[in-house]
Amino acid sequence: MLGPVILAASRSDRMRRLVSAAPVTKPVVDRFIPGETVDEIVPIIRDLTDQGLELTMDVVGEDITNPAQAEAARDAYLELIDRLKPLDLGTRAEMSVKLSMFGQALDGGHELALKNVRPVVEAAAEIGTTVTLDAEDHTTLDSMFAIHDELRKDVPQTGCVIQAYLFRTEGDARRLADSGSRVRLVKGAYKEPAEVAYQQRHEIDKAYVRILRTLMEGEGYPMIGSHDPRLISIAQELARTAGRKLDEYEFQMLYGIRGDEHLRLAAEGHRMRVYTAYGTDWYGYFMRRLAEKPANLRFFARSMVTKG
Prior knowledge:
- This protein has about 300 residues and is an alpha/beta fold.
- The protein has helices at about 1-10, 15-20, 25-30, 40-50, 65-85, 110-125, 140-150, 170-180, 200-215, 230-240, 260-265, 285-290, 295-305; strands at about 55-60, 95, 130-135, 160-165, 180-185, 220-225, 250-255, 270-280.
């Protein structure tokens, strides 16, 4: 049960300073976050797309405490879109955004986040690509879904994320599938109370399969966010049963995890999108990657031993 402990550490300023100062941290972080600037990330985009992969780009950073920071987050995404335009990749390079970065948690945060994210979504559409709204903790979801619905009125390809461990998600999935939305399904990476979320892995996995069946049988575009080989096989079978062609759904995995599997799925003709984060405010993102998968924590701990 290390996951909740690590998630708690992700909110600790003391742990942030300790981890950031450790000499082994940067090479380990580089496994998951391959750059801090747009200049550093553009070659990564070119390399991955040359290998037949697709990307969703995330500018990391969540601790927004004032409207100016939210506007800076908006501008960082607009800069990324500006750099993507001459690459002419279309939907092969899309973007993922956390509404907390756009001011969702501030006073008047719902309206502020919508105001800041709208120009990003519109600019992405202008260069032929899309934006997906990432899911955060359960208290933010009603606002996220309302913003998603509002954005889809003008940019219907705007996507969103749902989390299998939340009790509410089966209902959310039915609504989104009926509306023809682009939906990424993940297990979930936040510490949620037992009143709103499954706590046992087997319960989360069963919910994931139920929800994915709903998405596959619906009118939308399912995006399978998982590194679990068993769930990937089940997803392929559900797609076949639902009569979906290979371009009518996609797999998504994190940069730095199971890279060989990325290439294998792409070689088989599947759409395989790599969730690729960059930026300087990497701590929260990095700690959630450790919490999600014990192997990631072992990798970090081993690096500290061998490099220390």
